[in-house]
Amino acid sequence: MQPKKFHSPAVNDHIESISQHISNPALERLFRQCYPNTLDTTVAFQMVDGLPDTFVITGDIHAMWLRDSAAQVWPYLAHIRADPELATMIAGLIRRHSACILIDPYANAFNDGPAHSQWQSDNTIMLPELHERKWELDSLCYAIRLAHGYWQGSSDRRPFDAQWLAAMKLAVATMKAQQRKENRGPYSFTRSGSWQADTLACDGWGNPARPVGLIASMFRPSDDATVLPFFVPSNFFAVISLRQLASMVLDLDSAFATECTALANEVAAALQAHAIVQHPKHGAIYAYEVDGYGSALLMDDANIPNLLSLPYLGAVAQNEEVYQNTRRFALSFDNPWFFKGGQFEGNGSPHTLAPMIWPMSIIMRAMSSDQDDEISLCLHMLKSSHAETYFMHESFNANQPQQFTRSWFAWANTLLGELISKIAQERPHLLSAKE
User: Fold this and answer.
1) Cβ atoms of residues 392 and 406 within 8 Å
2) How many CB atoms lie within 10 A of CB 50?
3) Could you count the other beta carbons within 10 Å of the beta carbon of residue 400?
4) How many CA atoms lie within 13 Å of 173's alpha carbon, on the beta-carbon side?
5) In the chain, domain spans
6) b/e string for 158-195 if b means 16 or more Cβ within 10 A?
7) Residues β-bridged to residue 290
8) Is there a contact between 31 and 18 (Cβ–Cβ < 8 Å)?
9) Exposure pattern of 146-157 as b/e (b: 16+ CB <10 Å)?
10) Helix (H) or strand (E) holding 147
11) Does residue 435 have a pLDDT over 80?
12) Which of 88, 141, 191, 339 could form a disulfide with 355 if both were Cys (CB 3.0 to 4.6 A apart)?
């Protein structure tokens, strides 16, 4: 057995506290293994010149995604006041995010310093620090979300220094450039190969979009290319992230705070004008992607941000009518990436093809539900789909959970722990069921 990468007494205490309320042995074992998986297996922490520095790999891919790393440590923010070393580790990740954004705000995944990448031959500006350079709007939003969560949960302001502020200004400038009001901006990307979703149309610039105030994202959080450039879930994510950023920088740079708020308001108005479409069965719903010309892609993917996750990210109210319509759509066969087998159902992704269900989608369904029966169904599916590994996977076959992708996917593991922690706080009676 490999030694654990990072030890947190506060996280261990939390695991013991929650576990004593879980009656089902399989669910308890899942929680005990999954919740600390990020700390146990993916964290490389060190002090450099007296400052914390943290690199968090995604699991079986030894590179750091801005999105994954931020999401992987997110649930541990609840414990930073009780565990100063855990707080320092997360502060080190915030500092590393800032450094990465300053290297290239368009990159989604980074090496731990200059190194070789299997994607070095991609037709884009590939610096040696980059593992992959797919422009995904949510990458910058996740970095802001983690920083804001730390800002709220700690009195420590040391991570929010000149480097961080410079990175945030570059992030916002990148978002504004990708509104594409005057031109297509500096980013283009193509990749040689047979996988259609790994490259961009129109010689690397993506399909056309009319400038309407939304922010173009050339790739989804699945790392698959968007079909229409305005990826709606990430634009919602950008609105809340920009408002969070504005609150953080108000005392540091009031003009920048005003800029963040103005951009958030512009994107929010554009979403209301262009992202809502009429579905023949479900009524007014949010589209997955739009182009500003009136075209819309109606689907939902398991990767977060997706339409299902909008309340989880704080982007819309859970009881909002359009969201509830969208949720019913996303969890039905009207969504082409919703699959159902003998005892499992949930959303998949073009990234893993049909009929593969992502545990993350089942987790997010429970996260966005206020119905005991639905949450219990999700828990049953999660504890029945791990193929005797007692870890979450990227995806599994809707009819054969023993057929799965990615045995080491830390984000999904930590997210399961977050769900069970949420249920323990809000609906503890659901954990007392033995079945």
Assistant:
1) no
2) 5
3) 13
4) 11
5) 9-40+337-435
6) ebbeeebbebbbbbbebbebbbbeeebbebbbbbeeee
7) 230, 296
8) yes
9) bbbbbbebbeee
10) helix 137-153
11) no
12) 339
One-letter amino acid for residue 213 of the chain? G
Largest CA distance in the chain: 60
CA distance 62 to 51: 23
Beta carbons within 8 Å of 40's beta carbon, 6+ residues apart: 4, 5, 6
Residue 248 or residue 195, greater confidence: 248
| 384's tokens | 């029945």
**Parallel, antiparallel, or unpaired: how do β-strands 230-231 and 276-279 relate?**
unpaired
Q: Which residue, among 161, 253, 174, has the nearest Cα to 216 in the 3D structure?
A: 174
Residue type, 132: E
- Residues in contact with 116: Cβ distance below 8 Å, sequence separation at least 6, in sequence order: 128
Mean pLDDT of the chain: 97
Cis peptide before 355 (omega within 30 of 0): yes
Per-residue pLDDT reduced to its tens digit, 279-330? 999 999 999 999 999 999 999 999 999 999 999 999 999 999 999 999 999 9
Dihedrals phi, psi of 114, to nearest 5 degrees: -60, 130
Q: What angle do CA 330, 351, 77 make, to 5 degrees?
A: 75
Q: How far apart are CA 171 and CA 365, in angstroms?
A: 30
Residue type, 391: F
Helix, strand or coil, per DSSP, at residue 45: strand
The burial of 387, by beta-carbon neighbours within 10 Å (0-12 exposed, 13-18 middle, 19 or more buried), is given as middle
Asked whether the whole model's pTM tops 0.70, one would answer yes
Instruction: State CA 174 to chain mean position distance.
Output: 19
Amino acid at site 89: M
Query: What is the C-alpha separation between 61 and 296, in angstroms, rounded?
Result: 33
Cα torsion angle, 358, 359, 360, 364, sign: positive
> Which tokens in the block code for residue 396?
């599994």
Estimate the crossing angle of helix 137-153 against helix 66-73, to 10 degrees.
Answer: 30
Distance between CA atoms of 94 and 272, rounded to whole angstroms?
32
CA angle 94/146/425 to nearest 5° reads 135
Residue type, 425: Q
pLDDT for residue 1: 56
